[in-house]
Amino acid sequence: MLIHSAAQVLTLAGGAQRGTSLGDLGLIEDGAVLFRDGRIVETGLSPDLLKKYPDEKRMDVRGKVVMPGFVDPHTHVVWAGDRSAEFEMRLQGKTYLEIMEAGGGIVSTVLATRNASLKQLKDQTRPRLKRMFAHGTTTLEGKTGYGLNSETELLMMQALLELDQEEPLDIAFTYLGAHAVPPEYEGDTAGYTDLVCEEMIPALADWWAEHTKRPFPYIDVFCETGAFDLAQSRKILETAKEYGFPLKIHADEFDNLGGVSLAVELGAASADHLVVTSAEDIKALGKSDTVAVALPCTPFGLAESEYSPAKDILDAGGILAIATDINPGTAWCESMQFAAALACRYMKLTPNQAIAAATINAAAAIGMEEKVGSLETGKQADLIVLDIPDYRHIGYRFGTNLVETVIKQGQVYQG
C-alpha cells in the first residue's frame, strides 16, 4: 500500500537520539510511505512515489500526520482487580509508602492476581491492550511483578506470551519477581532476595526454554526504599546476568539509592522512573547506552510535583525515552499521547522531542530499535495516521484520541 499526500510524514530515521539531538523527526511535507508484506519499502515526497509506483493500492491521507506507532517501553499491563479505594486514600492525604505499610499498594494487587486464573488474567488485560492499540501504541513492554512467587509470576508471563500471539501489538517481556516483598516475607527482604536468586530466576530460565524459542526476557528489580536496597538489587541483577538474562531497573522514584549507576555498570538496557536521580548518576547515564525511561504519568497519578530531570539527562548526553507505566495503583493510563502531553508540560520537552522519546528511543529501551520505532526501509510497517494537520498537536492536545488509523505490520485497523 502507498500512503500518500500526508501533511507531514515523520520518519524518525537514523537510530536512537542522544542528548540534545533528541527531536529529529525526519519530517517530510506532502509525504508518502510505501510498504509491502508488512515491511517499509520507501518513504519520500508524494509526487515522486505516486509516479514511481503507479500500480500500488493507495490510501490518501491528505492533511493528516503519519508517523511510527508509539512504543511504550515500561508497562505493568497484566494484573487482576483494581485499587480505586487507594486513590481515594491518597486524596485523603495518605502517601504511597503509607499505603504500602498499611497493606495496600503493590501487595493488594498481588493478592488479587494470585487468585486469578490464566483466563481471568488475559480477560482483564485484553481490553487494556486494545485501548492502548487504539491510541496508537503498536509495541510495548509488559512486566510480571504481581505474583511475587514463582507460580504466579510464570502464570503472568504465560498470559503475556499468549496475548502477544492473540493481539496485534508486539510485546517485549520483562520478569519482575523483585517488584516488592510479598506478605509471607514481611520483615525478611533478604530472605525473599535469596528466593528470587536461588529459586525464581533458575525456574524462569528452565520454564522459558520449555515454553518458547524466543530470546530471554528482561529481568527487572525495584531498587527503592521499602522494596530492595542497592546491595539486594545488585545480587538479583548479577544473578540474572549469570543466567544470560538482559537487565532493567526501577530506580530513583522516591529515593536516590544508586540504582542508575548499578544499571550502567551491569549494562542494563534501561533505568526507569528517575525522578530524584543524582548528578553523578546522570553523568554515568550520559556516557552509557542505558536508556533513561521517564514515566510522567506516575508523578501525575500521585499528584507529585517532581518529574524526571529531562534537561539534565539530555545535557549529559543520555538517551531519553518516555512510557505510560500503566499499572493499577498510580498510573492507569493507556495513552502514550497523554504521556507525551505530560512530558511537554512537566519535563519541558518540546513536541518533537516527546515524539522521538515515545518512538525510536522507546524502541531502544526494549532492544527493538532495529525493528520498530521509525519508518525506514526494511522495518516493520507499524504506522499511525493522526487526524491533525501538524505534529505539534501531539503534546499540545490531551484528553482525546488523535489517532484515526493504526497500521500494524501492514494490516490496517481503523480507529
Structure, explained:
- The chain has helices spanning 46-52, 84-91, 96-101, 106-114, 118-134, 150-166, 189-211, 230-242, 259-266, 279-286, 297-301, 310-315, 336-346, 351-357, 360-365, 393-396; strands at residues 2-10, 27-36, 39-45, 58-60, 65-68, 70-72, 137-143, 170-178, 218-223, 248-251, 270-273, 291-294, 320-322, 383-386, 403-408, 411-414.
- The model has no long low-confidence stretch (mean pLDDT 97).
- It has 16 helices and 16 strands.
- The strands form 2 sheets. Strands 1, 2, 3, 4, 5, 14, 15 and 16 form an 8-stranded mixed β-sheet that branches.
- It has 415 residues and is of the alpha/beta class.
- Helix 7 (189-211) packs parallel to helix 8 (230-242) and helix 9 (259-266) packs parallel to helix 10.
